[in-house]
Amino acid sequence: MQEYSKLDQPAVLSSIFYPRSSERTPLPPGAADVEIETEPGITIGCRFYIRDPKAPNILFFHGNGEIATDYDEIGPLYNEAGMNLLMTDYRGYGWSSGRPTVTNMFTDAEVLFQEIKNWLSYSNHTGPLFFMGRSLGSAPAIDLATRHADAIKGLILESAIADTLPLARTLGIDPERMRITEEDGFNNLKKIESIKTATFILHGARDELIPADQAEKLQSYSGAKSKEFVVIPGAEHNTMITIGGKLYFQTIKQFIDKVTGVTNWRRRRKKTSLRTGE
Hints:
By secondary structure, this protein is an alpha/beta fold. It has one domain (about 10-275): 3-Layer(aba) Sandwich (Rossmann fold). The chain has helices at about 10-15, 75-80, 100-120, 140-145, 165-170, 190-195, 210-220, 240-245, 245-260, 260-275, and strands at about 30-40, 40-50, 55-60, 85-90, 130-135, 155-160, 200-205, 225-230. An 8-stranded mixed β-sheet has the order 1-2-4-3-5-6-7-8, sandwiched between helices. Helix 3 (about 100-120) crosses helix 4.
């Protein structure tokens, strides 16, 4: 595993992570809370918004200023569009214990994936699995996809990071003074080159925190043969769903349907019906 000690300096961590503790909110219909121990004494709280055991499952890593229960209204919208949303947190976020670092964000993501995969199997959830990362969450999502392409059907990135240093400067970090190079960062570009899994990249045209040219760069570096890139006009970093509305969810579901063959099946079914007069 890559070494992230330069990003784990306290002065850097205070700009990368914004942990927010919160009590659990009442569960929306169909949702379930799951606690996963990632190492002795450290538990990560997860909230799963479930539509159907056979529906596609999205393992979601959120941005640095969010917590899992922030998705109590958004999760059901994924459900309405035909997807299960599996939200994870980081250490110190929500009701999770510990303090976040870049290193434990990656190591925890590995454990979370393995345990959630086991949970899906135990709960007889047979739908295909996708990794999705938003903003900071793009880093663990991409990292996991480099090792577990055989376990997932696709990778979805929203407002994702390509280069670490430009974002660091935007967050008030002076990489030169702290002797941090791009190689010391998340290395999303290098990692995404090796990912052959179908990839879908969403970005806001007016994103000022992570400009849209970062998404273009990820798209160009992506090693996937099947890859799609959508820019939402007028959307900023935190207004993707507000601006995109239902089309936001429909676009993600269309990608999933295409990757899993649902779209092709529907097309063949329609052609057969026309020929037979059904």
